Input
Amino acid sequence: MKVSKKLFKPYLYLIFTLGTAISIYYVANIKSYAFPLVSIFFMMVTVISEVFDYDGEANDDELSFSLSISNIFFLILMFNAIIAITSNIIAFLIKGLKLKMEGRYNKILNIKTMFNISQTTIIIFITEFLSKKLDIDLISSRDILKLAILILIFDVLNRLIVSLVISFHSGKLFLEAFKFKMFILYNYYSIILTFALIFSYKGYGLLGATIVYLMYIPFQIVTFRYTKLKEKERELFKDRLSGAYNYRYLEALINSKISKKEQFAICMMDFNNLKYINDNFGHVTGNQLIEFFAKVVNSAIDRNTVFCRYGGDEFCLIHSDYDELKLFINSINELLKTRFIETNGTKIYTSVSSGLYKYTGEEVDFNFIIDKVDRAMYKSKHKKGSEIVEAF
Output
């Protein structure tokens, strides 16, 4: 579903304005809040844990454990919202400095940092307001349920605000933040840790909550390092230009399936006009065409299909079901008839030649399969169309 990119800047300004207005409100009413020394200690602990928080992208089967929600709820319910907001501002600024030193940010206080500070400030304000309205004192089981629901509301609001800014920036509705498995796991850990912090502090004071942090912060650091390692592993198997898996991954995947005698279908696709595009429009346009093709495939691909770049303008698709893969290739061919890139006012269309092969458990190797599907693809290319040629 497409959304208007024109809403991107107004949406950013709205979030910035609301975040700033809320900050001014808290500063104006600062005298009505208490700041015990212990609250400053936990603010520092929160900053440390937030700085170590993971800021990358986790896979569906990975959980990068975060203390963010638990930190915020602990500070709001045990102290006040100003402590929670201040700790998050400091943490985001330190993160910005860290990323600038790594060369990932041009400056510390950039748009992303300002957006993160503003959105967190807004959600903290809403959380404090709702917690007062619900009168949560954590004495009865009903209050515990209220807190669990409030944590879920907090996370949904956070994901919604982020999803909207990505949607307005990209022009396409983005709902990746609402992956059910990750949502449930993340909030399960957040609820458990929030209860642990609050009840340990209520029962044993500074010592109790400190012990909980000493248990969980090392766990957070370990998951952070693990997820960063998995991220680097993914980068090794990704093609930078297209975003598809690379030759190394393709070879490893096929060899794995052969060793298990696991049936699969593979298709090799090759552009019919890339040389013409490179010669007449330049290699930059040729690269844009490769990126465009990858986006077309990724817009239609399902979780059971693996998309790889074999090399140059050759791509491979792997699926467990031969007929389903054939249907998918036909759908890609139809999409390419209606989509194009534009350069200097010229619309550039492309089409692909496709070869298809089915592995059924026979004693062959990677090179044999690639040779089969490659020959089939070139037969398709000689027919000068988008007809799929099947290898036998």
Summary: The beta strands are 264-271, 305-311, 314-319, 341-343, 346-348, 352-359, 388-390. The first strand starts at residue 264 and ends at 271.
